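Students often ask why we bother encoding 3D structure as a string. The short answer is that it lets us treat folding as translation between two languages. Here is a chain of 435 residues written in the first language.
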Amino acid sequence: MQSDQPDPDGAPASPKLLFVHSGSIKKRLTFESAAALGIQNYLLNPTPNWAARYCRQTFVTQGRTLPEVIALAENLHRQEHLDGVVTFWEEDVPTTALIASRLGLPGNSLTAAFNARSKYRMRQALARAGVPVPEFRLIKNQSGLLRACAEVGTPAVLKPEWGSDSEWVARVDDAGQALAVYREFAGRVRVQDCIYPYRPRNFVLEGLLTGPEVSVEGVVQRGRVTIYAIIDKAKMDDATFIERGECTPSRLPVVVQESIVDMVRRGVAALGLRNCGIHAEVKITPQGPRIVEIGARMGGDCIHALVKRVYGIDLAEESLRAALGVRVHAPRGARGCALSRTLVPERPGRVFLQGSGCLRRSPHLIEVVLTKEPGDRVMVPPDGYDNLAWVSVWGRTYREAERRLESRANRLESAFVIEPQESAEVVDLPAAGRF
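And here it is in the second language, the structure alphabet:
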């Protein structure tokens, strides 16, 4: 991959890209994809961390105001002539859009970025464009919540306006329960590690969408949407909507998949997204597909690995291409099937691990990712939304993949022990990471 800016000797230079927030170590793959493309990386990050070794320079944002961060980016652009700016971190979608606009680089408008970040503004934008949405109301206080319950009806879903990762999302079956959940959640919600200053206490109440759920993975470049995969989601917990697994390619009928893709394209246009990865969540209701939300960034956790193994598409690379204004790849057909399972703690406590057979490599194991280390505390809703690990496998058929996943997941699950005590013997599994 080459930049439009030549080296002093006349040879094309490597493109220069500004990352906004590294994310956790789970996002290491995004920097690995950039390295494989020969991109020179710069990073705006709250603090120096593991990502520094992938970057020419890291600029610390902690303690800086948003105007100061924008000024850092502008000064870097004057010196280095950046070719693009990107984020893989949900909370920093607006900051990235603002930087792209200020520097004249490919990206989204700030309005589009807010449409994708705010659950309320998203519903408004979809409704204005004629995309079907459930009844919804913005909640700022308890009296507003009670009015909304009467207007929207119950059961309904209560969620933070600026939330992510399904945290503090709850089904509420009547006004009394909604009020209790709101009182419980309102003081807990936080928007993590972001530069843009959010007000996290607003909630949205919306009508409950029923039916199976899928995610749709792709990219939008110059307003043109490219869809790479539809991923079926395992049944979620009815109360908290915590995700527990995925599989691809989708097993839904082709006509349903086509209607899902059409709905996502309409949704992306309604939000005004122009250049970014897209991760859409869609419910297949009795009335047809309905958008839960559309993220203006690549999907997280195991999605990247599943899509790469089955379709040969690197979603991180496609997001980088969109950010740099380089043509993205066309979709490809599926090669086999991939399934994943996420291990979620059933009770709070400390993590202890036993045995390591579940980590043995095989040609059919896509990845095992441990998100907790021995001795780490884990919490369950509403105190926390931790997971322990996820495992993903590949097979030529779903039956083959399902058999392999069941074997791996059972062994991995038996390796985790959640104990209430403060200390216990910790044995031989390695630290959190990808294997």
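Translate back mentally: The radius of gyration is 22 Å. Keep this in mind for the problem set.
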